[in-house]
């Protein structure tokens, strides 16, 4: 349960005993009573009387509280000669709003005077008068009265209404002779400033206290509440719906709460970088915060309990506990300081009203190192100091950040991130954020050195010494982080710094210093060549967590830088504009494919394979020109063969022999131009003799004859 000391605190008004002592001396022979000067009573009892008191307060659900106080006083101051001591009045404190105050003794009514207490507006004195009470005599007085309630949000804190009540339950008496009972309906909740014992009696619960709370007896502020007797209003913000429960008839509080929730919750979500966690369903108005001195966030009961004051700071503070609580943050000062600082940032963002606490004096009453402030602390001085100091400390760390920087710090803290990890990295569970991790988050994400604020408000002497070691360790860490380029420093060192193991961190820095230039060489090789650093190589560096890992890096990093350059050089040789002949050779060797395989192997972190493929690519690039020339020569030869071989391979056409005539054939002779059919040429020349039958085979006899038409042939023998 997280608490915020923001409500009006009730200062216990002690109901001191009020008695009147008359000292009388009897002077024999003078025939009268002479009043003698008062003298100090004997030490047998305080003020010369003993007191036994039992008070019973009965609360009725409809809105009434009655009180019955039974007091027995005994005069234990003996007479001294002619002087004797007596009491003729006795008073108790009752609420200013008390009505029908009566006192009886021995069945008779006593006169009661009421008088205001000048130092406390909540108290008045009821004094009963009676006949002188001499030494050894006792008197029992029974007081009864009704407790009325002051108006809501008035200066007086007593409240009585339907389903609720706040009042002082008190009884004055000697140690072991005083007790108080408060009887309430079973349905009512009960809170008090003292520890009462509860006992169920039918439909009632009786809360009892028989141990003195101070030297005067028992005094406790009591608050009772029936949650079922309330006026309700629902308010929806985004996906969240909250129920507001006020005192019956307190419309002003419901309107205030609904408006501030609707306006403030989205701003809280933006500052925290996380949506409403949804752990609360009810925001309830109650008088208990006035009694206990704090409002509270109760995730077990799914409610926020606020006082009747229209206090934005308290409302935003308690809403902030949905994010800031002891489940995620280790240290009461831390989550209370964060909720208060965030609340006032919200007030500024929504133009609200609220005045933060002033910084307390470091040597004020109740002062302590904030690390020693726990939920079990209940001393008023300490609570007052610690709430103010927690706000002062956290505001000193975060107050000057802009909204973006503020969110970067508090969202990382809420998410449980380590300060030395990349923002948003929650792979490693570091547990609840404690004072050490928060200080580092403020430094790494906010750029604020909170050492002085911690030394003043948070830690003791031992803690201050640890802060000195941290300063040296962070300086060495920063140097290494600068020296190894853009990469994160190895995990082992980050882990040691997160856990504040500064001796181990120093050893890690010593081992990593020689590796930083090698890490830079890898990054520079990648930047120069335009190739990416293999993820496995970078991961091997950033995730290294042991000495064995650091030793492996001494080999891996130089190999990676060399391989990147090899692959780049080989790829460049293939890609260079080296002429068509070389490009032909590269194509025939499939050099670009080999180069691509080298780049793929490099990206996969297969450094040995990438280097081998790069060598193969370079060799192919070197041979490409000769392979290209050879290919051209081979191509020309092939072309020549393709042209000449068909010519050489085609055979000469053989003339066919004319078939020897085996029988007379009729031959139609078609005279040639100038020759008659009788063999006489038209020009007078004798016709040539026909070739003899055995003259051999005629040369390719054309077996068509000119029919005298242009280009037309007539087959012979047709």
Structural description of this entry:
This protein has 718 residues and is an alpha+beta fold. It has 17 helices and 25 strands. The strands form 5 sheets. It has an 8-stranded mixed beta sheet with strand order 8-7-11-5-4-14-17-16, with no helix packed on it. It starts with a strand and ends with a strand. Residues 1-45, 657-670 and 672-718 have low confidence and may be disordered.
Brief account:
By secondary structure, this protein is an alpha+beta fold.
Secondary structure topology:
Layout lengths: L1 E3 L13 E10 L4 E4 L13 E12 L3 E12 L7 E13 L2 E8 L2 E2 L1 E6 L6 E11 L4 E10 L11 E3 L2 E9 L5 E8 L3 E4 L4 E5 L2 E6 L7 E9 L5 E7 L2 E7 L4 H22 L9 E4 L2 H5 L2 E4 L4 E4 L5 H9 L11 H18 L30 H19 L4 H13 L19 H12 L4 H8 L2 H23 L7 H8 L3 H11 L2 H15 L5 H8 L4 H29 L4 H10 L1 H13 L3 H43 L54 E3 L6 E3 L3
Helix pairs in contact: 1-3, 1-4, 3-4, 4-5, 5-8, 6-7, 9-11, 10-11, 12-14, 14-16, 14-17, 15-17, 16-17
Total beta strand runs: 25
Strand arrangement, major sheet: 8-7-11-5-4-14-17-16
- Number of separate helices: 17
The share of residues in extended strands comes to 15-25%
Give the N-to-C terminal Cα separation.
132 Å
The rough form would be described as elongated
Mean pLDDT: 84
Low-confidence stretches: 1-45, 657-670, 672-718
Assign a percent range to the helix content: 25-40%
Radius of gyration, in angstroms, nearest whole number: 55 Å
Q: Strand pairing plus helix content: what structural class?
A: alpha+beta
